[in-house]
Amino acid sequence: MTEQDAGTAPPLTLAEVEAVARAAHAGQTDKAGRPYAEHLAAVAEGVRARGGDAEQIAAAWLHDSVEDAALTREWLAAAALTPRTKAIVDALTKRPGEEQEEYARRILATPGALLVKESDLAHNADPGRLAALPEATGKRLTGKYARMRALLGLDRPDAG
Fold first, then answer.
1. Torsion-angle region of 52 (φ positive above 0: left; ψ -120 to 50: alpha; else: beta)
2. Predicted local confidence at residue 4, as pLDDT
3. Among residues of the chain, what percentage have pLDDT more than 90?
4. Per residue in 5-28, pLDDT tens?
5. How distant, in Å, are the alpha carbons of 60, 86, 89, 97, 118 from that of 29?
6. What is the C-alpha separation between 115 and 13, in angstroms, rounded?
7. What is the DSSP string of 11-60?
8. CB atoms < 10 A from the CB of 91, how many?
9. Most CB within 10 Å of its CB: which of 95, 99, 131, 151?
10. Three-state DSSP string of 89-129
């Protein structure tokens, strides 16, 4: 039985996911005042460059959408996305008051999520991006990103 036979729409294409993400984040900027879609594009490209598949690239485009309230959990649940893409986006969505250790455990427990988070952290910690921020903010974020990399095991010599 195909997805259409089951009464469900085929998953959105990557171009459609990109368009949804860009529309959802339209008008939003990052901490340095750059259009937020630039971050999403960089994370998606980072996932592709690291060997990620289409489901992971789709999740990269959407990784901050629910957390930033650009899209709702209800939208995600009903969206024409694969279950794996939805699970990755959900895993990457921080919950209010959630400890970093709990967040890291959920990412590690979700197949495909670690690669997307690795790409997100790499772009967030890019020295060029951090240099555009006030020094205190850059230092705080550098520490935050380093801690998350450590919690995820990304600083091991054999890590990606």
1. beta
2. 43
3. 83
4. 445 789 999 999 999 999 999 999
5. 17, 24, 20, 23, 21
6. 20
7. PPPHHHHHHHHHHHTTT-B-TTS-BHHHHHHHHHHHHHHTT--HHHHHHH
8. 22
9. 151
10. HHHHCCCCCCCHHHHHHHHHHCCCHHHHHHHHHHHHCCHHH
The residue type of 32 is A
Tokens found for residue 143: 């520490």
Residue type present at position 138: G
Mean predicted confidence (pLDDT) in 116-141: 93
- Position 41: which residue type? A
Between helix 100-109 and helix 135-151 the angle, nearest 10°, is 50
Confidence band, pLDDT 50/70/90 cuts, at residue 158? low
Tell me the pLDDT tens digit for each residue of 81-97.
Answer: 999 999 999 999 999 99
One-letter amino acid identity for 109?
A: A
